[in-house]
Structures are given as structure tokens and as C-alpha cells.
Amino acid sequence: MGNSALVTLTDDMRAVIESARLCFAATVTPDGRPNLSPKGTIRAWDDNHLFFLDIASPGTRLNLEHTPFMEINIVDQISRRGYRFFGRAGLHLEGASVYESVMTRLYGDGPAEWQPAAVVMLAIERADPLLSPAYWRVADELAIRELWRPRREALDGEFEKHVTRVGPVRVDHSQ
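Above: the chain sequence. Below: its structure as C-alpha cells.
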């Protein structure tokens, strides 16, 4: 997996990845259309690679089998900043050494919370910062965080009211 042309993750990139734990992965369908999918298991593998579990992503997997390039966006919601990571992605199926190593890293010897169809590993060829235009109006990140915390709480409260009014989403697992 080593490649000197790959981008090296900084401490800041790692901190954003750890705080967000949610990313949006962009791939291209076989007919050339964009596909954007949330992934809740994003982690740094090493200094040059990110991975996530393919838990319920047959579309992402099919797209990567056809065109192996992917962009991942990760943003810390309170700081309103993050990173775009672009590169070639590989699929690692159960039984492959990367798959088994990832599962051991995440779950140790204990039972796995998820049995993914694959591990998706991104070799980071390019990384660019994402920064909200809100930074144009304030002194620094601490000011952004101070401004955004109450706004985030208000948004959460509004969504709670919506869920109370319409009822929570339920999934019928019997199908």
C-alpha cells in the first residue's frame, strides 16, 4: 500500500475524521452519473489511506468496480470545516488480509457489530480543505464554534419537534 505520491494525513485531518465519524463518498455510476452516499464508519487506516465498511452499499461497490475513483468529504459540524479526500479506492472482501485486519482493528477478538460486504480503502492522492464562508465574518474557529453550538441545538430541537409530530421512522425488518 505504500506510495510516496500519496498525501500524508495531518494531525488536523485525523482530528476532523475522528470528530465527524460521518463522511459522504462520491462515486460515478457505470453510465457516468454522480452518486453520493453517507458512510458512518470512516477511519484513518495509516498516514495515506482512509477506509469505511461497506455495510449496505451495493451501489457504491458496483460503482467502484466500474470506476475506482472516489471523493470523500468530511466536515466537523460545529467548526464548519473539514476536508475533501480524492483517490483510487479498492474493495477488500471477507477473507482478504485488509478486510480481516480492519475487522480486528475495529472489534478485536469480540463479535463484530456489522458484517460488511467489503472494506473500502481509499489511497489519498489529493486532500483539500473545506471551509464555511462563515469564517469570512468571524475572528477564528473558536468564534465559529461559539456561534454554531446554539444554532445546532436549535436545529436539533426543530427536528425533534418534527419527529414528535410525524412519528419516528421505523424499518420493517421482516421483508
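Residues 136-166 form one domain.
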